Amino acid sequence: MLASSDMDAVASLSAASFLTSLLTAALGIGGGLGLLSVMPSFMPVAAVVPLHGVTQFVSNASRFAFDYRQADLRRLPAYLGGACLGGAAGYSFVGQVPDLYLSAALGGFILLCTWTSLVKRLGKLFTNFFSIAFMQTFLSLFVASVGLISQPVLIKQGLPKNRVIVTHAMQMSVLHGLKVAVFVAAGFPFLRYWQIATVMILASAAGSYFGGFFRDRIPERLGAFALKAGITFFACKMIADAVLAA
Fold first, then answer.
1. Could you say which of 123, 170, 215, 217 has the lowest number of CB atoms within 10 Å?
2. 75 with 167: CB under 8 angstroms?
3. Exposure string for 136-147, b = 16+ CB within 10 A, e = fewer
C-alpha cells in the first residue's frame, strides 16, 4: 500500500483523474468507471468508494457548472428525492462488506459494466427518475460507479448528446454529493487522505474543463476502445489480487 504522501501515487491518481474526467466530458461515458478501476492500486480498497465519490462529485459538478445552460432542470426534483431516500437506506450497510470481497465485487462489477449491457438494461426497467435515483444512490455506496443506469433513460427521452451529458452530470453531482455525506456520517476519515483527494479534485475539474473542447473532436470509437482496454486491465488486476490474497 502506498501512503497518501507518496508522490508516485499522487502523480498517477491525478493523471487518471484528469484523463477520465476529460474523456467523460468529451464522450459522455466511462470516466467514473475508469477512475474506479485504477484507484485500488494506490490505496486501501475500503477507501476507494468514498474517495471516488469526492472526486466524481467535483468532476460532475464542474462539468455541470461549465455548461449548466444545457441541463434539463426538470429532471432534478424527482432525482433529488429518490437519491436522498437511497442514501438513507444504504447508510446502515456501509462498512459491513469485508475488503477482500469488496475488491472482487468491484472488479466483477466493472467488467460487467464494460463488456455487457446488464447495467444499461437495469435503467430501462425503470420509467421515472425517483426510482432510478434511489437504486443508483443505494448501489453507489458499495460499487461506486453506477452512472450507466440513468443514461439510457435520458437518451430514450430524445435529448440531444450535449443535453444528455450535462443533465447526467447534474444528476451525478446529486448522487455523489449525497454519497460523500453518507460516508461522512458513517465516520470515514476523509482528512487522512486529504493530499490525494485535493490533487484528484483539481485534476478532475481541469479534465472537465478541457474535455468540453474535445467533445466533437475525439473519435468516439477510438476513445471508447482505449478506455475499455485500460478498464479491463485494472479490473482483472483487482479480481486477481483478491483471489491471491484469499
1. 217
2. yes
3. bbbbbbbbbbbb
Spatial contact of 33 and 230, defined as CB atoms under 8 Å apart: no
Identity of residue 244: L
Residue 230: all three cell numbers together? 485500460
Cα separation, 13 vs 201, in Å, equals: 10
Strand locations in the chain (E): none
Where exactly are the structural domains of the chain? Answer: 7-245
| pTM confidence score | 0.75
Q: Using the structure block, give the residue that is written with the C-alpha cell 477510438.
A: 222
Average confidence (pLDDT) over 15-24 = 84
Distance (Å, whole) CA 115 – CA 129: 25
Task: Give the amino acid at 201.
Answer: I
**pLDDT tens readout for residues 157-209:** 777 777 888 888 899 999 999 999 999 998 899 988 888 889 888 988 888 78
Question: Grid coordinates representing 122?
Answer: 437495469
